[in-house]
């Protein structure tokens, strides 16, 4: 499945070690063929923590291609494998980059976030990647009894790519359960992407993103909602990495 691109095991989850161009090419090669739908997820410190306490989530991610998101998993790679990921392929930036750089012209469907946010995100995405066609949007707060109806409408739109923004792990569980039924060839769990694209949540300045401290910027904007994730979650993640590092001995250095 990795087509020559190595994986790094980040505490039980295999994460693709690729540059952005390599990842774009990999996804394009999948779309060239007739293979079953490809499910794409992003692993950051928070996602890793969730998987550590949820074996079903860890098991679900074995059926995904997983890309690295953020400085936490890069630190983990250095401590556990004595090497870095080639690039930071966070979902907010890489998903948009893929749409800008793919050689395919795609039909897109956006599902998730609050009422109206996916539609606003779609308008902005149409400006960023105008050669693609957005064939539908759906907020993520539909009643469970409407699930089949929502899925039928999505399939009727005949998307090539479905962006799913339910948050972790709900979006990965939904993708894993419904990928075949959507008729799409690629499904990506995108977290807060719609909130950023719609302008509902502001991005950090570019220099903050380049320094890989966007998490601190988001924490400053939403301290009540994100304090547990970052102030407790980040130290917990690093403690887990250190325990894993100590349990396996000194990593082998790669040239």
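^ structure tokens above, recovered residues below v
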């Amino acid at each position: 499945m990795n087509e020559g691109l190595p994986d790094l095991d980040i505490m039980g989850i295999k994460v693709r070690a690729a540059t952005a161009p390599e990842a774009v090419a990999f996804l394009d090669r999948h779309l060239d063929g007739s293979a079953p739908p490809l499910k794409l997820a992003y692993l950051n410190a928070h996602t890793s923590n969730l998987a550590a306490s949820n074996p079903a989530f860890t098991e679900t991610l074995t059926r995904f291609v997983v890309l690295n998101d953020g400085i936490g998993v890069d630190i983990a790679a250095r401590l556990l494998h004595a090497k870095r990921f080639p690039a930071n392929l966070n979902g907010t930036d890489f998903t948009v980059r893929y749409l800008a750089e793919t050689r395919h012209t795609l039909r897109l469907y956006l599902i998730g976030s609050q009422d109206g946010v996916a539609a606003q995100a779609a308008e902005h995405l149409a400006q960023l990647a105008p050669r693609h066609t957005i064939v539908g949007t759906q907020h993520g707060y539909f009643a469970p009894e409407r699930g089949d109806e929502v899925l039928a409408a999505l399939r009727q739109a005949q998307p090539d790519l479905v962006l799913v923004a339910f948050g972790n792990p709900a979006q990965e569980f939904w993708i894993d359960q419904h990928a075949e039924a959507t008729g799409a060839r690629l499904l990506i769990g995108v977290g807060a992407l719609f909130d950023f694209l719609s302008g509902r949540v502001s991005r950090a300045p570019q220099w903050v993103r380049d320094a890989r401290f966007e998490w601190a910027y988001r924490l400053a904007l939403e301290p009540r909602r994100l304090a547990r994730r970052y102030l407790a979650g980040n130290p917990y993640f690093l403690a887990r990495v250190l325990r894993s590092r100590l349990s396996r001995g000194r990593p082998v250095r790669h040239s």
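The mean pLDDT is 92.
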